[in-house]
Every structure is written in C-alpha cells, then in structure tokens.
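Sample A.
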Amino acid sequence: MGWKAIARYDVGTSHQSQELPCQDYGGYGIFHDVIVGVVADGAGSAKYSDVGSELAVKTVLNCFERVNSSDKQGFSQPLSQKGTEKVFAKIVQEVIVQLRQLADEKDYDFNDLACTLLVFIATPHWLGAMQIGDGFIVVRPQDSEDYQLLFQPDKGEFANETTFITSRDALEEMQVKVISEPQKFICASTDGLEKLAIRISDWKPFPPFFKPFEEYLEETANPEDEAEYLVNFLKSERLNARTDDDKTLLLCLWENN
C-alpha cells in the first residue's frame, strides 16, 4: 500500500516565442503514508516569477518535511477545518517570509516574485487542501467514480486577473477544504490546462481528461522512472494547439495492493 506520484511542468509556446522561462513549478513529498503536493504558477507580468514559484513550492515541502521529522505522528489524525486553516496559514506566512528575504537579498521588488499556490495533504483516510489564485485540484474518492473539483479557480474581477501569494489579501483569499474520506486519485495543475480539464460553464471536471492519467498511474510501477507518457503529453503539438500557457501536472494515486 502507498502513494504513487509524478510531477512535471513544461514551458508554454507563448513563452518560447518570447524566450521566457517556464514560470510554473510543481513538486511533492511522500512521508510514510502521507503525501504533500504543491504547484505554483508565476505571474506572467512578474519579472522573476519563475524564481518565486520554485521557491514557494520548495518552501512548502521543507515545512512539511520539518513537521514530519519532528512529529512522528505527523498528519495521521484528521484535522478540523479550523486546524487545517491554521496549518496552511502558517505555511503561507513562511512562504511570504522566504520570498521577502529573497527579494531583499537580490534587490528585487517583492511583487516580481508573484505566483499562485495550490497545496494538498493526503493520507489514506483524509485530505486537506488550499488554493490561492487560479489552477485546480481535482480528486476522486475511493468509493466513487466521480471526479470532484475542490475549489473554483480565483479569476478576480477582470480578465487575466487572480490573487497571488504576494498580494496583500492573499491570506484572506485563501480557500481551504477538508475531506474526511480516503481519496484514490488526486490531480493538481496550474491554469494552463483549465480549459481542457474543467468545464467552465459549471466548473465540473471533464472525466476524459483525468481517466487516462489515472490509468497511467495504475499501470506504471514507478511513474518517476517511466515519465515519457506525461512528458510527451505536455510537449505535444495537439496540446499546444489548445493552450499556449505554461502547464503543470501533479498526479497521485493511492494503491491498496
């Protein structure tokens, strides 16, 4: 029994044409039977957002690694809604501290490190998740065939607008959810894939997008060593014809056998 996971991100064609770096970043950590997943999307208008998104993801994972090393119980017991909100608020504050320190060291404007942030903690029994900005987290419970979108992406008041972790109201706009049931499949992604994965008309996941990735994880013994399927998908001409943005996929599967 245990978690299988893979995270990959790829630069969008619009960034390639402008000779810009990929501003997405994603990663995960597995601590015994707990998995922590993180994805971030750097703001297109922010000069060093690729640096900000990478630092944000690594800071979150470091926070959870410290918790796991200091507390062997870790997150084995479900947290309440308020407890989960407190955990994520502390993590967001730590990310902000790290971003401000980097901005001071490099003489960057703090807002030049702007990025969205999506995080989840999942055990065999429960899941807690948070989201600042757009992008999506979709899950499938072990006792259901239906995929569920955890949060409606934050699109702001105007087009191409969202909340970033560097925004003054980041903590106030943070969405948090606790699900007290086991999850079979989890997918976290930045907004580059929203139009393909989510029906915007009713904010429902599009099952044909997610099912092949779940099957890929089921059939793959070690996804990180057999990443060609996912890498080819993210780089495919067919995908890039439908989105020119950076794109990230973090895929997780709980395996009982």
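Sample B.
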Amino acid sequence: MQEIKTIEAFQSTIEKGHVVVKFYADWCPDCHRIDPFMPEVEAQYRDQLRMVQVNRDTLPDLAEQYDVFGIPSFIAFKDGHETIRFVSKLGKTREEIEHFCVRAVQVAQSITSQKK
C-alpha cells in the first residue's frame, strides 16, 4: 500500500478517481493486527479502488482535519470528495474492512450514476 507522506501528495491522490485512505500509527497494535491481510484486501479491490495509507503521527493536521482519532480508520474519496468512512476507536476485522470496501465501491458507483 502506497504511503502518503505530505499533505500535497494526499490532496493530489484523493483528487483522482476512487481512493480509500487508511490512517494508522506505528505504535498502534490494532493497526499491526490488520497488516498481514491488508495486501490481500487491497488486491481484491484493486480494479475498483486505490488504497493508500497515512501515518497520523506524520501528518497530524490531516488526521485532525478529517476527525480521525481512532485508528486504524478508513476514509473513501471519489474525485476529491469524501464518500464514506469507517472511523472508530475499536479494532477492525478483515470482514469489517471488506464490508467497508464493498460499501465504498457502491457509494462511488452511485455517485457516478447520478452524474450521468
């Protein structure tokens, strides 16, 4: 998963297509617990969305701007606009993350349909 390290890179990344941003921290045990299966989840949805990650301790202003306090947290964007989020202080399971990805794809497709 690509690491976003600057606010400028974040802005340019979310402006293009359908993107899911995972906010995490190095010290977060729940973040490390999902690391083993995240490459498979990313590969499963590769044709429908792009997944990137942001270390909330590296870009604290960005995490604050998007009200990300619990980690790991996921926020989906379509062409620069937030569409759906999975933000909580609780740990997340693979099934919950996959369900979020399905919903994120559905919401993005709905937005695309409405624009036509």
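B remarks: The longest helix spans residues 94-115. The radius of gyration is 13 Å.
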